[in-house]
Amino acid sequence: MGEIIYLNPTTGSFATFASDYIHPAAGYMTAWSNIFQWVVVGMSEVIEVGEYMNYWYPHLPNWIPGIVAVALLMVANLASVKAFGEFEFWYALIKVVTIILMIIAGFGLIIFGIDNGGHAIGISNLWSHGGFMPNGIVGFFFSLSIVIGSYQGVELIGISAGETKNPQKNIVKAVNSVIWRILIFYIGAIFVIVSFYPWDKLGVIGSPFVATFAKIGITFAAGLTNFVVLTAAMSGCNSGIFSSSRMIYIS
């Protein structure tokens, strides 16, 4: 898709390409499936905003921060694509810095035992407790749908192409950087977390990110992680508004 976007940087992106190269019905279905997907995801993120705010304000009704978040993001998206970009930049920066710091500190514990009395944690948890695919190929395929859903949002590269300055240059950089982002922010973070904790214990320790930050000596781990996931929820809703509005426009 990156090659096609390079040649034809249009807002419709994959929906337009499906219509042009397969059939108009394919483009229509692609656009509306994307709209439906982002409406569901966006609304779930709004609900999560209320849930995350309850950490600091437990008696605040969830709908209040949800409405405030939607209003704020709607104003940003209606103002200009630049405003959308500014919001997304700062939301992304918070997530990126947090994950990179966690990975660096995590490797310090894994290799050198920093903050752990000099005792390196090692990576034996990666193959202990049943090893890779402990539930076999069936378990692997059952988990695959959830894993694939985690990559939702990559398609925004194509949707934003029609409104990107110098798309032939910037879209190429964005597409080529995807693999490195996956390696660092997905695989790197999971590598550190699973090295710290057996995979079969992750469901009972609460948030693995909170537990990991606490393990590396950050005493305010819960509040920090809650703030990060709050901005992540805002980012998800922001992306949903941007994507679905463009898909509705070209449908």
From TrEMBL:
It is found in: Cell membrane. GO terms for biological process: amino acid transport; transmembrane transport. It is a multi-pass membrane protein. GO terms for cellular component: plasma membrane. Residues 1-249 form the Amino acid permease/ SLC12A domain. InterPro entries: AA-permease/SLC12A_dom. The chain crosses the membrane at residues 63-81, 93-114, 134-157, 178-197, 209-237. Keywords: Amino-acid transport, Cell membrane, Membrane, Transmembrane, Transmembrane helix, Transport. This is Putative amino acid permease.
